[in-house]
Design brief:
2 copies of one chain form a homodimer. The first copy, chain A, is α/β, with parallel strands linked by helices and 243 residues long. The first copy, chain A, is built from 8 helices and 13 strands. In chain A, the strands form 3 sheets. A 5-stranded parallel beta sheet of chain A has the order 3-2-4-1-5, sandwiched between helices. A 5-stranded mixed beta sheet of chain A has the order 7-8-11-9-10, sandwiched between helices. A 3-stranded mixed beta sheet of chain A has the order 6-13-12. Chains A, B: It is an enzyme of class 2 (transferase).
Chain lengths: 243, 243
């Protein structure tokens, strides 16, 4: 059987990968992925054949990985974080019916929501939402409605892609929507370059978050109404103390 | 410095642990946790001292771990999945101010939302919510409101703790709330014993899900309106095809 692994690498360094992910990469003859992610794993497997494509060519990358597998190579498509959260597992499975001989295995990894949360404390300890602010693939009205619903549900919220050069001001707009439902003092946080060189993080209020200028390598966390700043850590209680 | 690691093990077997998690357990002199989770890691570290407590004694377990660290032992508190998603990172950080000499490090792992999603396909490829149906710690009205908001936001939804002996019928009530906003044909799925012996999974409609009897070792996934059943896999498109 021809085999294609879709592998989540976790946030960055090899220490964040699962044993299952390392095994999948070891078995693969070809590693496919976005150039930046391939560079993360290349030092571990310097002898492997690689196929890289730039950021915006996701579908071409997926098709090429499936074609290589179809030709009989064992292939691993690498993704940062988890393969199934804004990763390549989706588009590959959507194309799968065209490649019926290729067995596809999704290997999960630690997503930025989880690794970023660990840096800040425990902001996602209770029910939470994950929302991407990128409107490259999703109409802004859909994103706005989800922010509104997440705010009304008093979820902790993790925001991916808080901004980019073309989307300056999106984080401020998101904060505006949330401020209609939550206190300006709501405990928030952000983590930049999670698990990589130059990791930085900050715990701050929703009001302060609105004024921050963050880049696309930053993951943002917005607390629920119950979220606390405990000695500089962002913690959402689950409610054990009420038992 | 006295050190306490709060470590997410992932779904079960050692192959799902990150290198960082294995290193934390290796460094620890005492492993603390719920009996079932300690049994998962004990074969890897048969020589280590362990401290286990039953399911419901979470706060006692956390306090004991902090006390052991305070006394100078390097301690690892183990959690299944991710330490920060319905895990022990929250209660430990809430007690942390009483133990100022203990340095606490949260080590994230692959949560059931991510590992279960990988088994089913890619149901969480776009924005999603994670909601626990357990009302042991959360009033049912809060859970119901979150289900309602998640439905209105057209999020993919991952449900933890879909039922238990005392909470039969909760999953059906949750499905009822979602059916007010989503088609009975909405693609759903569940995974039982993720990454452990006896793993089972099923892709089914929301209408069918309503009639299922599932246990507390099962994680449930409810698709967004765009989620598809592609050759038996549950896939939520992100929208690359619209570019």
């Amino acid at each position: 059987m021809k085999h294609l692994y879709v592998v989540g690498l976790g946030p960055g360094g090899a220490e964040f990968m699962t044993g299952q992910a390392i095994q999948a990469l070891s078995r693969a003859e070809v590693l496919c992925g976005y150039t930046v992610y391939i560079d993360l794993v290349r030092p571990l497997f310097p002898e492997k054949e690689v196929f890289t494509t730039p950021m915006t060519q996701e579908l071409e990358r997926c098709r090429r990985a499936l074609e290589l597998a179809q030709q009989g190579k064992t292939v691993a498509m690498v993704c940062s974080g988890d393969a199934g959260v804004y990763g390549m597992a989706g588009p590959i499975l959507q194309m799968a019916p065209e490649f019926p001989d290729v067995e596809i295995e999704v290997v999960s990894g630690v997503s930025a929501a989880l690794s970023g949360a660990a840096v800040l404390g425990a902001p996602l300890m209770h029910d939470f939402c994950v929302i991407s602010l990128s409107d490259l693939l999703t109409p802004w009205e859909v994103i706005e409605n989800r922010l509104e619903c997440a705010a009304k549900g008093d979820f902790s919220i993790c925001l991916y892609n808080p901004s980019s050069k073309k989307r300056a001001g999106y984080l401020a707009r998101a904060c505006e929507i949330l401020l209609a439902h939550r206190s300006p003092q709501t405990v928030c946080g952000w983590v930049k370059n999670i698990g990589r060189e130059g990791q930085e993080s900050k715990v701050l209020s929703l009001e302060e978050l609105k004024g921050e200028t963050l880049d696309m390598f930053t993951t943002v966390f917005i607390g629920a109404s119950s979220t606390q700043d405990i000695c500089g850590r962002m913690v959402t209680p689950r409610g054990y103390e009420r038992k």
